[in-house]
Structure formats: C-alpha cells, structure tokens
Specification:
By secondary structure, this protein is α+β, with helices and mostly antiparallel strands. The chain has a domain of 399 residues. It has 16 helices and 26 strands. It is globular. 40% of the residues are buried.
C-alpha cells in the first residue's frame, strides 16, 4: 500500500513573497487573543488574519469556560427523565437493524416491556411513546448516513463508518509500532504498564523557549525531518498572554489561566483532495471529504510508516461526516422533550401515608405543637410530580448545518493524532478507568474528538461516560415556593448551592465503532477487565483531536522534527566522521546538547506536561464548581 505522490503538495512552500505574514497563537498572536483572529489562506500556506464582524465565532469548549470564548460551554439544564430517554434510545440504537425493527409493533412492545420491567429505572408510558416516535423519526437519517446521535450535545456513533478492510489494514500496519523490543515499548507514565503509547502528542510537543519554528514557508510531509534543527526558537509567552479574558458574567474562582506557558500539542495539517473528475453521485458523496495529510504526524515517521499515514488519512476522511454532526449539535438550540416550569405540582404519596398515618393529638400536647407535627406530616405526605414529555410528539428539528469540507476547504483542517493500547494480563486483569476531563488545554483549541475502537480482545464491555455542565441560571426560571428546593435533586439531579453537573449517559466502546463528541462535554473511561482471567486481552484505539478550524495553530508544517533519533538517521555521518562503527556514531550523537531533543529528555518533558495538565483538570473542576445553582428566596 504505497503512499500516493501528489504534485500539488510540494515538499516545501516558500512564504517570503506573501503579503500576509505567518501569525499563529504563540507566534505573533497573544495566546489569549486567538479568538480575535481567523484562519486564512495566504500564498501557499495558511496563517491568521484579524477577525471580521461577519466571521463566525469559535466552536464552544468547556476549557474556555469563564473566558470571552466560553459562550456555549454550558448546556440546557435537562430533567433526569430526559437523560433516561436518551439512554434508552442509545441502547436501542445499539441493536442491529433497529431502524427497521422500530416500526414493528410486536418488537417495540417487547422493548417497552423490557424497559418498564427495570425497577431501578424511572420510566413512564409517555416516555416510551416518545422514545419510539423519535427513533422512528430518526431512522431514515440513519439509513442514509450510517450514524446516529447518541446524546444531544453532539455524541455521535457509527459501527459502519469504517469498512472492515480498512479496520484490518489499520490493525496490520499499527502492529509494526507494537512489535518492537520490550525496552523500546513506551508505556504511559503512571499506568502500571497497562497503557502502551504507540503515538502520543505529549511526547515531543511544542516547548516554548526550546522548539524551533520555520518562518520562511511551510514544511511538507518529509521536509519536516530534512530541516530538523533549523528555524528560530519560539519565545516563552509572557504571563499576561495566559490569563483568561473574562466575560461580563465572569465568576470568581474560575479557570483563570487556561493557556500553557510552556507546552502545546502538535497537530498535522490536513487538506481536502476531492477528485473533480468523479461524476457518479454515490462516488461523489464518498469522495467529497477525502483528505491528505500534508505535514508529519508527531512521533510517526512518514517514511517508515507511510502505509499507516494513508490509513489514518482515510479514517479522518470518514470521521468528517460524524464531526459535522457533532459540531452542528454542539452549536444548536437543544431539542426539548420534557419541559419543567412549575415545581408546585404535587400529589399524595400513598406509600408514605400507608406507612405513616396522619398524627393524632396526644394528651397534654399544646395545639401549636400538634399543628407543627401535622404540617410536617403534610409536607412529607406529598411528593413532586415528575415531569412527562410533551403531550404531542414534535419530531427532532435540524441542527445548524456544519460542513467542514465546504466551509474550511480553503484552509483545511488540523488534527492531533494518538494511537494507544490498553493491555490486560492475568497478573493485571483490571483497568480501573479514567477521570472526568476534556481534551487538551486551550492552546490546542480542540473542538471535537473522534475515537475509533479498531481492535478489542478478551475484555468485558467497555464504556465511555459523558457529563455536562448545565445552565446554572436555568433553575431560577422555574416557579417554586418559598424555601422549597426539594424538586431540584428529584427532577434535575443537583442541589441548590451546588454546580449543575449532570451525567448524561455512556456509550459502549465496541470493536469497529467510531465515536465523535464535542469538547463541551467531559468524558471518562469506565472500568473493564479480562473476560477470561486466564488469558491476556487488549483494547486498541485511534484518537483524532480536531483543532477548531476557525483558528490556525502551530503545527508540524511550521515546526521541524524535534526528535534526535529521526534527525540522526538523515545526517550523512560517513562524510562527517568517516567510516566509523555505528556505536561510535551513536556516541557522537549522544553528546549533542539541547537540540534536537533526546528521547530521555523528551520523556522528562512529558512528565512535566502531564503534571501541568493534571493541575489544569483539577482547576477546571474548581471552575465548574463555582457555577452553582442559586435559588433566591422570595
């Protein structure tokens, strides 16, 4: 599977004659002013220009919470029952042929009975009516696209987007990264040798004050290695460029420094390569999102792994329709199934009354004491009426249309690539799961993620869970009585004075599934373990992090290769050192200081980056906790 050459993508594109200079966040643009710039094509490369009034805003990100880029980071505060409906629909759409079966009265009756039989699930007949109606409405779109919206905020799944031959090709070519001596395997730090990094963006990232950047053009896919060591050193951004630029509704205790002063993950550049000679409409639809990677993937050698590059290009191309849907949902008004406007709707709690009869006045009891006891009993003898879906079904309306190929064809995309395996053994049979987080720091401007689960063996069901930050002011619009807040946890799952963090559900991470979601949702890998504890097992993923295409960031098209081992391979050592034995040449390379960066040094920098991002995750949690539901007393 040789990589196709392209005369339209030269090795190096000079930029000296362009009237528009190269400006990128961290290079000519203050990190915290990136929102005021927009990606724009120059002569042979992509840079940024000042934002115009008619330009769209950046896609929302939870990392931008409490900054002037943070609009849309919170979601509608939705009733728990609505999340239950989504979880039921997500389970049904995992069933093969659901798009046909949903129209069978016998099958839907069986599904209804199975759901209603769950004692730990709060489901009503009206909820199930709506679920069936909505899935019938969504079936036609699923038949056409092969993907379905699992959760409203933009969680999209497909088990057919990546064809089986491509999955097998990925397994085959990625195996070359796995089949190396044990001492060369790169297990992720602090993972107890369970997470094997094949390609990871935290290794050899942009390091401000050390990384070099090319200013006279952009690097082609192989030129990045040939020009290793050239360019000027990126300056360390001043601290004033890191602080969040607050919105008018900024609250204290938030994520005040969402940018890193030292690190940035390094994306590769991607262009659209639609073949204009294709005339068949079906082939046009398949071809229109075709992509080509035009700069090296960080930590994936373009010559040694050219077949893997081609496979990743195809996966990116096939992920674009799902990303379109994810981003469209993320910026659209939410589809409301259940409305809750008045908390005064109550009914008698017959179970409570049966177990606790109305109190009678005791001998010698003061009347006011008795009245207090009766009032307390009456309060507990009533329960809030949980909201139901609207009486008349309203089909889902179309989200705002996002078409990455159409809207960003002139500037292309930037994608951060990760390949990682989780390996379990009889000695270490369980993976304990992850923590709630969103991807990257604001330096990367990640707007969406695609996860492709291309190989799983001998593991129990693995799931990825999601949670959102609900609108902290939404509850204030609901009618409620003085000092009565008991409806909040029952209806919405949050307390007065606490952050409205809502767990919306999870998705099964089955082999062959492509999953996309926006960076406005936190996600967490749930624990899983070996199916057969006597044998090893694994789960392998390809992760693609999409940089917001409205902004251009520093990429491998700007940064020559930083890896000393790659640089050493293309140095003409014989002409420099004569015919020295390889071990002596290696000894000479080991004494080169500072740049290019050695693997040992890169791993130390990775630990530093991980510690910084761990602190950011903790600070982000604190920022979200400052967004609390606050019901004023009447």
């Amino acid at each position: 599977m040789a990589r196709k050459s392209s005369a339209s993508i030269p090795m190096f594109i000079a930029a000296q004659t362009s009237p528009i200079p190269l400006r990128l966040p961290g290079f000519g643009i203050e990190l915290n002013r990136a929102r005021t710039w927009r990606a724009t094509p120059a002569e042979g490369f992509v840079t940024n220009r000042r934002k115009k009034l008619e330009d769209d805003g950046l896609f929302p990100s939870l990392l931008a919470l409490q900054t002037s880029e943070g609009d849309g980071a919170t979601r509608r505060l939705a009733p728990i029952r609505e999340f239950t409906m989504l979880q039921i629909m997500n389970t049904i759409t995992d069933k093969p042929g659901w798009e046909k079966k949903i129209f069978s009265p016998d099958i839907t009756k069986k599904w209804r009975e199975e759901v209603m039989a769950h004692r730990d699930m709060d489901v009503s007949e009206r909820m199930m009516d709506w679920v069936i109606n909505e899935l019938q409405a969504r079936s036609k779109d699923f038949e056409a696209s092969g993907n379905v919206l699992a959760y409203d905020a933009g969680v999209v799944k497909s088990d057919t987007a990546i064809p089986e031959p491509l999955r097998n090709a990925l397994k085959s070519v990625a195996a070359r990264l796995e089949n190396v001596p044990d001492d060369e395997k790169d297990y992720h730090p602090h993972s107890d040798n369970q997470v094997l990094d094949l390609v990871h963006p935290s290794l050899f990232p942009v390091v401000f004050g050390r990384t070099r950047i090319i200013t006279d053009g952009v690097l082609g896919i192989h030129e990045g290695i040939a020009r290793a060591g050239s360019g000027e050193i990126l300056k360390i951004p001043p601290k004033e460029d890191l602080a969040a630029i607050a919105t008018s509704h900024y609250r204290s205790g938030g994520l005040r420094v969402p940018y890193s002063q030292k690190f940035q993950w390094l994306p590769c550049d991607v262009v659209f390569t639609t073949d204009s000679t294709v005339t068949d409409q079906h082939d046009k639809d398949k071809n229109r999102n075709s992509c080509k990677i035009t700069s090296y993937i960080n930590n994936l050698h373009p010559r040694e792994h050219q077949e893997l590059y081609e496979v990743i290009e195809q996966v990116i191309s096939l992920a674009i329709p799902l990303w379109n849907r994810t981003l469209g949902a993320a910026v659209s008004e939410p589809y409301v199934r259940i409305e809750y406007e008045d908390s005064s709707d109550k009914e008698l709690d017959h179970d409570f009354i049966a177990a606790n009869p109305k109190p009678e006045m005791e001998p010698g009891e003061e009347e006011y004491e008795y009245e207090d006891r009766v009032a307390e009993w009456e309060e507990h003898s009533q329960k809030y009426i949980l909201p139901e879906p609207r009486a008349e079904f309203v089909p889902p309306y179309e989200d705002i249309r996002v078409d990455l190929q159409e809207q960003y064809r002139s500037t292309g995309l930037q994608v951060i690539v990760k390949l990682a395996n989780i390996h379990l053994t009889p000695e270490k049979p369980r993976y304990n799961g992850g923590t709630w987080h969103v991807e990257g720091q604001l330096n990367e401007h990640i707007c969406a993620t695609a996860l492709y689960y291309y190989d799983s063996e001998n593991i129990t069901e693995s799931r990825l869970a999601f949670r959102q930050l609900g609108g902290y002011d939404d509850a204030a619009d609901i009618a409620y009585e003085q000092d009565e807040h008991g409806w909040l946890p029952l209806v919405f799952g949050c307390e007065n004075g606490s952050p409205p963090l809502q767990e919306i559900g999870d998705v099964v991470c089955k082999e062959g599934r492509l999953l996309t979601f926006p960076n406005i949702l936190q996600h967490r890998v749930s624990p899983f373990q070996l199916q057969d504890p006597s044998k090893p097992g694994h789960r392998k993923i390809l992760a693609l992090f999409l940089v917001d295409p409205n902004i251009r960031i520093i990429s491998s098209a700007n940064v020559p290769c930083q890896r000393r081992d790659w640089w050493a391979e293309q140095v003409p050592w014989e002409s420099i050192t004569g015919r020295l034995p390889p071990e002596l040449s290696n000894e000479i390379v080991s004494h080169i200081d500072d740049f290019p960066i050695s693997m040992e040094d890169a791993k130390e920098l990775r630990l530093e980056l991980m510690e910084e991002r761990k602190a950011v995750v903790m600070e982000q949690d604190e920022a979200m906790e400052s967004y609390t539901v606050s019901l004023c007393e009447h």
